[in-house]
Amino acid sequence: MNTYMSGSLVLTIASFVNLTGSLQNPTTVTLKYRAGSGAVTVISAPNNDSAGVYHWDIDTTGWAGPGQILYTIEWIGVGAVQAIADDFWAVTPPAI
């Protein structure tokens, strides 16, 4: 699991493929993420870089500790391509 310092922009990327293995856009793509046990943030129009490839920069500013906080990420594609994927990373407080 990757670890980032609070204040970092963390890039999350999802690639969606159809049944033949070719990159293809789902009809609808949703990104959900949560820091620790906080509220879930929903992004209904993440950046579409090319066929089947999406990204979003998540701002981790605000975690002052103590210790680390776990970010949970979920990409959801429905319609033309149906798939779901998750990711996780930790955020530590700033050094100073």
Structure in a nutshell:
The protein contains no helices and 8 strands. The chain is mostly beta strands and 96 residues long. It has one domain: Immunoglobulins (Immunoglobulin-like), CATH 2.60.40.10.
Shape: elongated
**What profile does the largest beta sheet have?**
5 strands, mixed
Count every helix, treating DSSP H or I runs of 4 or more residues as helices.
Answer: 0
Order of helices and strands: EEEEEEEE
Share of helix, binned: under 10%
How do the strands line up in the largest sheet?
1-8-7-3-4
Category from helices, strands and their pairing: mainly beta
Poorly predicted regions are none
Q: Any idea what the radius of gyration is?
A: 15 Å
Q: What is CATH's topology name?
A: Immunoglobulin-like
The beta-strand count equals 8
Instruction: Compute the separation of the termini in Å.
Output: 23 Å
- Average pLDDT metric: 97
* Strand percent estimate: over 45%
CATH architecture label? Sandwich
CATH class: Mainly Beta
Supply the CATH superfamily name. Answer: Immunoglobulins
